[in-house]
UniProtKB/TrEMBL annotation:
Probable carboxypeptidase. It is an enzyme of class 3 (hydrolase). It is found in: Secreted. Residues 1-16 form the signal peptide. It comes from the Eukaryota. GO terms for biological process: proteolysis. Its EC number is 3.4.16.-. This is Carboxypeptidase. One of its GO terms (cellular component) is extracellular region. GO terms for molecular function: serine-type carboxypeptidase activity.
Amino acid sequence: MAVALLVLKLCLVVESSLSPNDKIAWLPGQPLVGFQQFSGYVSVDDKKQKSLFYYFVEAEIDPASKPLVLWLNGGPGCSSLGVGAFSENGPFRPNGQVLVRNEYSWNREANMLYLETPVGVGFSYSTDTSSYVAVNDQVTARDNLVFLQRWLLKFPQYKHRDLFITGESYAGHYIPQLAKLMIEFSRKERLFNLKGVALGNPVLEFATDFNSRAEYFWSHGLISDSTYNLFTSACNYSRYVSEYYRSSVSPICSKVMSLVGRETSRFVDKYDVTLDVCIPSVLSQSKVISPQQLGERIDVCVEDETVNYLNRLDVQKAFHARLVGVRRWDVCSDVLDYDMLDVETPMISLVGSLIKSGIRVLVYSGDQDSVIPLTGSRTVVQRLANELGLNATVPYRVWFGGQQVGGWTQVYGDILSFATIRGASHEAPFSQPERSLVLFKSFLKGSPLPEVF
């Protein structure tokens, strides 16, 4: 008994001493704020020295009463720090040499935890470079689970706090698999109080999600009738992607994709078909799951303030970050060898199992995204609701953000929701921050989206 008490006391000493070491005193160029920030590393494999980098921002007001939200970007292999935190829903955005406040930061409603995962992404690293080879969904989910377990040792005040997981794109794979492991772990030890997951423009069902692209292109005038017919019969997009990642693109798929590429034009941002500006590389997470069309070179902005900011030595020092095995911080990893065939594994049945476990699920779509279009996501959610026998508790209707229509929504059984964000891109909080914050706030509360303005 005495030994057990001694061990407990030692653990408490470790817990209380770690998080202050990760506290960010001041980020270069940041405005004055009243909330605390932390960042640093959590080892997820001591033998291979695999360490995941995180950035944690406490809620602006009364963080002790607010939930904990884990945000994951996709790729696979793209940074939740550079994309999620610094271009989408974090408290700051780089502007030249300084940071400016994001008026619609999600830490207005929650304590936000951004994780660069898997190892090899951003500042996350392993001293054993074999850790970057043959990385897959299973390895990523396991490492993410260990991260959360050990992160809660640093921040014990967040144990048992209401916990939500949110993210976008390939996080449609990351999040359900992590949530499944968390539920399994909780049967042995009560640590996580997982309440819900929100998936933005997610990859959930490979064929449905990817093949909805053809209709989206055609309905928005990006391709001709004849090319649409070829794109839906001779070679659909899921077939092309499967062939691409097996290095065996057939002549017919090569022909079809050349036509699609020529008609859609490389001067249109596929992740926001209404955007008429250059494509920032901070939005490049989706380009990993969307291979370059044959003969097409992805254009990015020369000036990328997030990349410039995170590669400053004073910024890295403030973040307690270091570069290991790479020369610079990048939005998406070029050292990570991810098993891209995992994209073909459907996640929607796993989402169904989360719902059966009582976990609320929101699938939302920026409606200007042609990479993972809303039509595919809506179809997948409707099919899942039917399979689970969930009736519509909120019929398909508009919702409001401010004094304008924010999008459309439908809720099934008060546990499964679908929503669109009007005018939003693949990275919805980047392009429609105010509407995205309204959606996030409703999601946390478990309440329907506003019917009136």
